[in-house]
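Take a look at my tokenised protein here and describe the backbone shape.
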Amino acid sequence: MAGRRGPCYTEDVDLRRIGLHPDFWHPVARSAELAAPGTVPARFAGEPIALVRTESGALFALEDRCAHRQVPLSKGAVSGERLRCGYHGWTYDATGRCVDVPYLAGAAPNGVRAYPCREAYGLVFVFPGDPAKAAGAAFPEVPSFSDPSYKTRALDRLIRCHYSFLHENLLDMNHQFLHRSLMGGIGTALLGRDSGDGWVEARYTFKRTGGKRPWGEKLMIGERDESSQDRDTMTIRTSYPYQTLTFRRAGKAAPALDLWLSYVPQDREQRTNRAFGLMSIRRPALPWLLDLFWPVIARFTDGILDQDRRVVELEQLAWDEQGEDRNQEVFPVILSLRELLARSGTAIPSRSF
């Protein structure tokens, strides 16, 4: 298609056509969604996954299609430590093997795919790629989640855009003008950037250029002395496929804010993502103050996140209408990020029917 093409565009690679690589641990649901015993449906890039909590509380994940008639196993019933399809009662164990066909005296066909599955940080993770690689794959570390010095809020949103737009939105802190109605005037300064094998990082500091600091920001990170020579620092990193944001007050070693994020494609075309996040805020000298004002912080962060969601969905809409990536990107941080995402991802498979 003819048209103006950004500097990141090449004839054979459009980042918005690159899929998230499945050979990582990806969160697909929150633990609270899955009662014992029970099931819940989940997805990764169009693949339907049935998450199962057994009567003992054990967890496993299966392809969400019965081998018999392809109906969702997540509509079935947990029986002890196994799952029975809700249609004809075919019974599966945690390995995906069909262990019972009631009306054929226990005849067992091959069964369905089982996914390596883990639970941590109030999230259910699966390994949707090559199962032989699961044991050796690094599992995300979120140390602030279990640190009593922090209070953590779980974030969970369905966002209708390619995951790359979400990485770009957070890593490029030059978009603070977007949040002027909630944050007032904020000037952004890039302090430095680095990259390595599988990661890109940017470090920023900020200065107020107009308006008053909102209460939500004060409650999250405390008072700031902008006249000081020391600088508060925000470090944002994409460590493929995850993203983190750490805010440190000037002269402080422990972060005031620690954010971990993962964007998990839901549809086969990867145009809709479920964004999971863990936002940890350090407790003040009077720890109960954070609990008291938690609803104010939640409303403030929800407002910021909603503005980000709306703008990245508009970016996706532009791509859909134009049929290609025409972004005129000039920020070196984002150019490095795009290269990382394109290099680390995988081609989105086309349907064969």
In short: The helical segments are 163-171, 180-183, 215-221, 288-292, 294-322, 332-344.
